[in-house]
Amino acid sequence: MNFPSFYLIRIGGIETSASIGIHAFEQAARQPLLVSVTLMLKPPPGADAIEGVQDYDFVREGVLALVNGRHFNLQETLCGEILDLCLRQPGVLGAVVQTNKPDVYPGVAIVACRMGRMGPSLPGFPWWTLDV
Fold it and tell me: Which domains, and CATH codes, for the chain?
């Protein structure tokens, strides 16, 4: 299978405090949440210049706005909305998102959700093989 050329940008461990979860103890107070995003992007035009490359500030700003904007029952819902945010950006061919809730259960490091979505130019791309 032939895939178009692309490059990756990883924004890892965006720290925030979220209203997320279905359990009463999760809904009683905001809890720490780490969000990581890997973007598959069209390659830059070649020059060593800012013009033509993706401004990825939208990831951090968008994640923080989503998390602060409402309660999420499910990590899956939040991951899906972050994927929607990413794929609306010009030049983004696909994205992988992972949310980590570190304080859910005693003796458990994290409860995580990882999702990926590819645009039409990357059908069938094995997104689950990418580090997030």
Answer: 7-45+54-109 (3.30.1130.10)
